[in-house]
Design goal:
The chain is built from 3 helices and no strands. It is mainly α. The termini are far apart. The relative contact order is 0.06.
């Protein structure tokens, strides 16, 4: 199955399912390429995702707060 066939299905997954898929790919791709990744590299990759997600959530909260302030 090609990625073009998978994308519509992936879009409908929950955030938790997408995150699990990312973790699977993070672990699977190095194995497929014969690259041995230690826990340190995996932790870095996990941290990058977590920080990006946190930044996005913070921006959403700021936008909501700004809209509420403008409506008052």
């Amino acid at each position: 199955m090609s990625h073009l066939e998978l994308l519509p299905h992936i879009r409908h997954l929950s955030g938790a399912d997408k995150f699990q898929m990312m973790q699977f790919l993070r672990d699977e791709l190095p194995k497929q390429e014969g690259i041995v990744m230690g826990n340190e590299a995996a932790e870095i990759m996990y941290s990058v995702h977590t920080y990006n997600s946190a930044a996005e959530q913070l921006m959403q909260l700021v936008e909501i707060e700004n809209k509420q302030t403008q409506n008052v």
